[in-house]
Specification:
Helix content: 25-40%
Number of strands: 5
CATH topology of the domain at 32-68 and 116-229: Rossmann fold
Strand content: 5-15%
CATH superfamily of the domain at 32-68 and 116-229: Thiamin diphosphate (ThDP)-binding fold, Pyr/PP domains
Order of helices and strands: HHHHEHHEHEHEHE
Radius of gyration: 17 Å
Largest sheet: 5 strands, parallel
Strand order of the largest sheet: 1-2-3-5-4
CATH architecture of the domain at 32-68 and 116-229: 3-Layer(aba) Sandwich
Length: 235
Amino acid sequence: MTITEERGRTYGYGDLSRLMGLMTGDEKHGPAATSTLDALWVLYDRVLRVAPERADDPGRDRFLLSKGHGPMAYYAVLAAKGFVPVDWLPGFGAYDSPLGHHPDRVLVPGAEIGSGSLGHGLPIAVGTALGLRAQGLDAPRVWVVVGDAELDEGSNHEAIAFAGPAGLDRLHTVVIDNASASHARPGGIAARFEAAGWSAVTVDGRDHEALYAAFTAPHPGRPHLVVARVEPKSA
């Protein structure tokens, strides 16, 4: 199928591998990309209240990709949902392509933040949730996808420690756990968040129904964590 034939199509989960395959070039970081694929799809297909036509709607949900290293899955999902043209995918990583090795919010429609620095996404998500609260916008939810290795960064732990007591119940964090963190945590990732007053659940990061149930679990008065376990990065 040619790019021209792709235009105007409706895409499903089964199309994502092919869409990712359109992206060639160096520094693809396949494991970093595929580790997020199922969580991203379930969020965009069944949970997030976002759409290309309401990209600037104050009432939209905010999705922040902190785990921006190897963003092909993200770009494939954005293309499948109509945020970016499929025509852009083959140019991934090229000098004149808007699809860089980390998403750029200025260049990529639907991207709320630019990624790059480890440990920045969750603090930004906390600030976003606070800002929405200050504006009296109670409907939008804030979602951030973080890699387990990012939790080695102290900035995340400051955000975790603040968000729980602040009762930021519009804040949702998804940690993609592919066993790449350098520092172990007693009791695991979920225990760290729970100790700070978060709601937390750990699920199979490839099981769409388990992910959906975890994403939509009630957590009144508390921020919510979903640990999505996938195969180890070295596997």
